[in-house]
Amino acid sequence: MARERSDSSHIRPVRRLLLAVLFLCLAVMVLIWRIDNPRVERLRSAITDRIVPNLEWVMAPVTAFGRMVDDFQSYTRLYQQNEELRRELQQMRSWREAALQLEQENARLLDLNRVQLDPELTYVTGLVLADSGSPFRRSVLLNVGARDGILDGWATMDGLGVVGRISGVGQNTARVVLLTDAASRVPVTVMPSSQQALLMGDNTGLPLLEFLEDIEDISPGDRIVTSGDGGVFPPGLLVGHVVVDRDGRLRARPSADFSRLNFLRVMRSHPGTSLSDPGGLIGPPWPLPTAEETAPNPEATAETAPPDEATDG
């Protein structure tokens, strides 16, 4: 214990002496750096030339740290610029999608305007609001209804061909059953053979052609148009073209693009002419009456004959 005290008693004066010398050297250096004198300036230059090159290894960590700070600041600026570019790119993508949608809608409307139809036919253009979204029912909903004069059974078209028929009318909306729906049955004519057929939907993209008289006269690529039978669809509306499936059955490839139904035309069908009295060209009712039915009845003749005049006397 006594030895430790003696050692500490010798260290304290030496520490104090070293601190005093250090402070004295620092004070001298400050005075030298503050004195404005040519000799002192030369001395400062000499000291700087002697000490600074030898202290490069000491300044290397400081220099590296400064570069790291600069690089980090540059990275921060680059990150901010990248985020701004990402936001601008996202906005540009949204604008591009909006522009594409407008372009598609414009093209659809232009296609609708280019279709040549019977001048007596009029139509109402409606916007497709939603589809059924069911694999068992193919239909879409339009934003036109009874307030626009829409009636059940009217045909609907896009810019190219028949899409379906109206099946259900509300005050402001109407439902369209597509040609591909399993409940769809449309009388059609296959051109140029002019054969009558029935287009039957089966929930696929290619409806079936049934009840053809002579299949050999039908070739893939023949045009299919509505026949007008039944008085529901106007005649001559383009439906599609004939194709043959893997099983050899005849089907129709619709001209309408069912994957991009944005606008539809609802064709106003004019009511047919009703006949009240038979004309001269209409024959007698079938079956024809027999000879017994056409022979005169004597009793009926006697009843209808006028009485004999009274004789004299």
Task: Summarize the structure in words.
The protein has helices at about 1-35, 40-50, 55-115, 290-295, 300-305; strands at about 120-130, 140, 155, 160-170, 175-180, 185-190, 195-200, 210, 225, 240-245, 250-255, 265-270. It is an alpha+beta fold and about 325 residues long. Strands 1-2-5-4-3-12 form a 6-stranded antiparallel barrel. Strands 8-7-6-9-10-11 form a 6-stranded antiparallel beta sheet, with no helix packed on it. A hairpin with a 5-residue loop joins β10 and β11 (about 250-255). The chain is rod-shaped. About 20% of the residues are buried. The model is unreliable at about 270-290 and about 310-313 (pLDDT under 50).
Radius of gyration: 51 Å
* Poorly predicted parts: 272-288, 308-313
- Secondary-structure content class: alpha+beta
Please tell me the overall pLDDT. 76
Task: Estimate what percentage of residues fall within beta strands.
Answer: 15-25%
Largest sheet: 6 strands, antiparallel, barrel
- In total, the number of strands is 12
Q: What is the overall silhouette?
A: rod-shaped
Across the major sheet, the strand order is: 1-2-5-4-3-12
Share of helical residues? 25-40%
